[in-house]
Design a protein that fits this description.
This protein is mainly alpha-helical. The protein contains 30 helices and seven strands.
Amino acid sequence: MAKATKRKAKFIVNPESEAEDSVLIISRADPMPSSIGNTPPTPHSPNDNDSRKKIRLSSPESSLDDEVPGSVSGEEEIIPVPRTTSKAAVSKESVVKWRESNSDVSEKIETTADDSISPQRATPLSYHRLTPPPTSTMKTLAPLDVNTKTQQLIAEIRAKALVAARSSPIEEAKPFRETLSDSDSDDDLRPLEISVKGKGKQVAQTASDARPTRYNTRSNNPQPSSSKSKQPSVSPTVIRSDRRKSRSDPFTALLKEKRDEEKSGRSAFHYSKAAEIASQIPLETDDEDDLDDSASPSKASASLELEDLKVDLDEGDRKRLFGDQGEEIKVILDKDQEKREADELQQSRVGASFWRENDDDNDVDVDMDVELAMDFGKYSQQPVLCLLYNAFKSHDFAQASAVLSSGLLNTVNLELFPGVIDYLCYIALSPSHENLSSDAFNALLNVWDTSHTPMPGISLQIILNAVSRLGAKSDILKLKGSHTPNLDDERREDLVFRLVKLIESSARSRLLNVTTIPQVVLVLLAISLDTSTSTALQKEIAVALDTMFQSIADPNVVAEIEPAICNQILLYVSNFNAVNTSHIITLLASGVGRSIRIARWVARSVLLVQNEVKDLIPILTPGVTTPCQVFQVRRDSDYVEMGHYVQILAVALTDIPSYIPRQIAAAAALKAGRPVMNSPSKEKIETPLERLETCMTFVHRQITDTGTNIERSRTKAALQHLTLRLGYQLKAGTKSDKPTGILGYFEKRNVA
């Protein structure tokens, strides 16, 4: 028992040095005589246990101490701390040499290793085992912790990525080009496709590059793994497109077809370019069939396309191309040809040329522009007129412009100087005085709008001379004057706009000569019917016409001037077709009051085929028949012409409520003259408006609309709209104002 006690080992654990050295010190103490024997400690004797622990912890170091390495977990890395020797100088020298040999160890590890032993918790040198430094020259590598490994891996990955980026070829920026060639467009429009080649065609990664890298847990540097290691094989990375194989894209096919057409020269652009070039080349034909140079390239290309569509096929070709259905296809082609011819005829019938072309010298009464003579009368008595006259005489346009723009003409009574108004109108409408024309135009508008005294307005002769200088045809208005050649359309439209505004301003101030209004109306209608007149200018002409008609205020003159205006218009439209006649009547009906009344009488005369209006008789005269056969529905009816006549009839049937009282009075007189008509068995006599509604309904039912002719559908719809309007107006005008109860309703039912 004594021997067992004598051989018993005592473990002395220093809690402060355990965390730092991770080494357990076994102290072999000398045998001590036990006074209490081997009685084990009990819970009732804590003091004995405490005293016994204190003795063990405070026991001195034995010379027979041995090192026993502590247990190390497999998941942690232990940073070894060099052992100290009994000699401090030798230990310090070995530490310096070890640090110099391991210079590649990271600073973080060194700092951690140095900081782990603080002076406050350092173990006394007497408790450390004094061992000499290792004599081997083998390089000792310090182990890495988890954070250091992660940072090193990230640094290596970044370095590899940087090297790969620098070694890749630099992609040059593609230059921007206005037009794309076929090769470029194919590359741009093709979707992203990453193809995978077969064996032997492409090697994504070599064996040396694909060798994995294994990190030793006890070292810093990665080591290549051996061939015997069971590392997973790294296969070449192939980028596959997640998009499934797309089906045939019609848009891509259309673009490819367009590119093919442009490449082969069969696109619409090439056709139009070729047509434009062909229109500029004179044809080798007789002089009578010369190509009109004034035709636009679009018209030339359209004519060429129509000529290409005209293909004559004989019976054999039709049988070979279309088979047994050749006759049916021939009927369809013939109908299409008729429609194209009708469209060409319709386009040729729209408008009437009023302006002469610049190279048209057929009129023998055309002279060069002659300046109007200045007739200022006794201008010496007026300082403003004297100053203006001297400026015009000396061609001092700056002084003349200053006088005109200053407004000094408002201080002069121009009623005594009609020549000043005529000369200013000539300057404002002359294409030769571009510098003063605007100032003269504004001065005339200012004088006419602000003056309260009667003065002359623009005269008919000034208007005729102005349109003649601008290039009006002399055979239309029977004009004789001068003509300025080579006047572009834009400059002409500006001057015509000034002419219309001067006429409107004179009419608003009631300065026009009433007897000349029919001729002025004719000039404006001729300008509006020209094909080059814009929509904005036509609106201004409509406003000027309405202003002129409203300026006729004298009731003694109205009965004479209105038939004269109607006769002048009827004489002008007598040789026109239904398209142009409908345009003239619609333009007249765009006003109010007297404008609509004049348009209504012109429309009535056109429907009744009358070239003259002798008296303003009632528009709905019983027993009047028309020789116009346009509303006769036949197999070969021209529905385009019928549609325009429906528009003319709609103008003639305006202001229906004003005719209803006269119609009621006529029906009452007829009923009083024939008492037998009071019998319910007798058929009721229709009034003229009711008879007209019945006829319109009959014509509407005669038109069979199958949806194959757009003009027929439009004509039938317009006729139905007009019939419904007339019926509603008649019903609203003849409706009694007396309230009708339910008894009256049943009484009417019983009588019927």
